[in-house]
Amino acid sequence: MEKIAIIGAMSCEIDEIKKCLTDLKEISYQDLKTFTGNINDKFIILAQSGMGKVNAAINTQYIIDTFHPDTIINTGVAGGLGKGLKIGDIVIAEYLVQHDFDVTFLGYAKGYMFLGEDRKSPTKYLCDEKLLKTFEDLLNKKMTETKYYKGVIASGDIFVSDKKQKEEINKTFNAIAVEMEGAAVAQTAVRNKIPFLVIRAISDMADGTEGEYRMNLEDIAKLAANSVKNFISIENFTVD
Ligand code: ADE
Q: Which one of 8, 19, 200, 235 is least enclosed by Cβ atoms within 10 Å?
């Protein structure tokens, strides 16, 4: 049976998926909240990692060591950086970068993490091509009203709420969205040679517009989770 791990930072980012799990079990380990169950003929490991890159990395490694998933999906909300993006759009990462990893003083590019030959470029964590294609095909077929964008997602331990900072991340990394966990899940998945995908929905425009994020959080988190749920429910979902 295919094993799929789905990781979200907050409960509202995983609740819609939890509702659909049959044979639901809760596993408590330290302060990690993990649920297991089935959707169709797939075994799902659903985790609430907490916010930020360290929480996400710890949680991802725990899930890998304990459940040995075939695929990892990170989902939740994100701030929009790209032109044309609107609240409620779905964003799929082609690759992820860590926008707050900064050893520029030593002559490296912003986001360079001592991985790869080219120290003048940020380290990129590439999503699985086949998973990306399958997800895109599904969006093209099913979700006609929801717009989706594919591009770079930048992660960092900062809630971006400032126009200048937003523009800087967009320009430096060519990033279309910003969030706080995706690249850490990605880095851990890459280390363990497990294919992964990051699927987010835009909850705010990362520019400090008062109240926008809080107002949209629940609904937009649901949107992202539902698209993940539809994705893992399709028959041809496989990573081979
Ligand atoms: N997740 C959702 N919106 C965000 C933002 N503006 N910055 C960082 N993470 C986010």
A: 235
